[in-house]
Amino acid sequence: MKIKTRSLRAWLLGGAVLAIFALPAHAQQAGETSNSQSSGPASSATQAGPIRYARPQSELKGLVKRTWGDTKAYFTAPLHWHSRQWEYFGGALAAIAVAHHYDTQARTHFDRGSKLPFGPKPPSSSTLTDALPGFAAFAATWGYAELIDSHAGKTEAWNMLESGGLSFLSAYAIKYAIGRQRPYQTASSNQWFKGGDSFPSEHVTAAFAVGTVLAESGNPRYRWIRRTLGYGIGAFTAYQRMKHNAHWLSDTVAGAVLGMATAHFVMDRSAQRQGGGMDVSVVPVRGGMMLAYTAQFN
């Protein structure tokens, strides 16, 4: 099978840009230093409840510091990749290439019967409606965590937000570097560097970032339910973007890979901060008080 020079050049540049923006999931190296904060012993024997938080201002500073550290590590991760990370990257490129082979067939399937030469233009409302599933998952997770005051739930929600934000920024930069035209703009799926903004899909990228955190977090007892919901959100978003003729099939596959990789990167960073973490608390018991120590190992 012959590969057009323009198409090959597009894929090579696309691969280079994807590499810059940390496509593989396990880019974080084991030797990196964690930014987790250590907790000192209780200052008073009469203090009740777990000793986890300092003043709200300190919490905010710690959150900003954590996010900034994750951002720097995320965008510089390819500089530290080893063979396993490059294998993931190669696999991701292969999946995108296979999807690209079927771009035209997928577009024809969704636009069958349209009177327009390239299919209908996506309705303006689809930009918002196609983003609702991912946003709803984040909002529900954050709201429920606040309702029951769950530290684990709040961490999960923040991982969703951070994953979605980092992956969205990556997708935004890549799509304007690649310049691919959308399916309603051209009959050819090889219209690269034409000032378009199709590859990859930002909606799908963010949806899979949020959905992957939902799928791989929480109680393992409910893992199958979480994975059904989490990955279902991403797959449904990809389906909607193709149904609305807003993206090629390979746009959605690239977005899915980028979103999942970013989510695993953020979750790995979060797990490293929490690994070996401990809670020290004073628990009231009959006849006095008891000092309790709880350690978490991931």
Please, could you describe this protein's structure?
The chain is globular. The chain has 298 residues and is mainly alpha-helical. A 3-stranded antiparallel beta sheet has the order 1-2-3, with no helix packed on it. The chain has a single domain, classed as Vanadium-containing Chloroperoxidase, domain 1 (Up-down Bundle), CATH 1.20.144. Helix content is 59%, strand content 6%.
- How many structural domains? 1
**Main β-sheet, spatial strand arrangement:** 1-2-3
| Largest sheet properties | 3 strands, antiparallel
**Straight-line N-to-C gap:** 48 Å
CATH topology: Vanadium-containing Chloroperoxidase, domain 1
User: Into which percentage range does the β-strand content fall?
Assistant: 5-15%
* Strand segment tally: 3
Order of helices and strands: HEHHHHHHHHHEE
Helix content: 55-70%
- Unreliable segments of 5+ consecutive residues: 19-55, 276-282, 293-298
Please sum up the structure shown:
The chain has 298 residues and is mainly α.
Describe this protein with a few key phrases.
Vanadium-containing Chloroperoxidase, domain 1, mainly alpha, 298 residues
List the helices and strands and how they pair.
Elements: H1 5-20, E1 49-50, H2 56-76, H3 83-101, H4 103-111, H5 126-129, H6 132-148, H7 151-178, H8 202-216, H9 223-243, H10 249-274, E2 278-285, E3 288-295
Antiparallel strand pairs: 1-2, 2-3
Helix pairs in contact: 1-7, 3-10, 6-7, 6-8, 7-8, 7-10, 8-9, 8-10, 9-10
